[in-house]
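Hi Y.,

Following your request, here is the sequence exactly as I used it, all 90 residues.
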Amino acid sequence: MGRSHGGSASGNDIAPDSELEGGADESLKEAFRVFDADGNGLISAQELHDALKSIGFEGRKLSDCVNMIKRVDSDGNGHVDYEEFKAMMK
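Below is the corresponding structure, written out as tokens. Let me know if you'd prefer a different format.
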């Protein structure tokens, strides 16, 4: 069942690209929400520092996180928004 007689997958067995991208986008949004602790739609250096610390990256200094933010902060506001986060994760 689910296979055509020729042994190849039928169209019903293959998720369209948009479905796959939607799932990946949802995963990215969830990851972003983990870092965006205050829920304001921006990741600050302090939020990044706290999140990294909570998953075991104890050795990172806040200044390291400031530099990490600067590298992906394309609009220069000192924070990472979702679009910048998504671009960084590609």
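Residues 17-35 form the longest helix (19 residues).

Thanks again,
Q.
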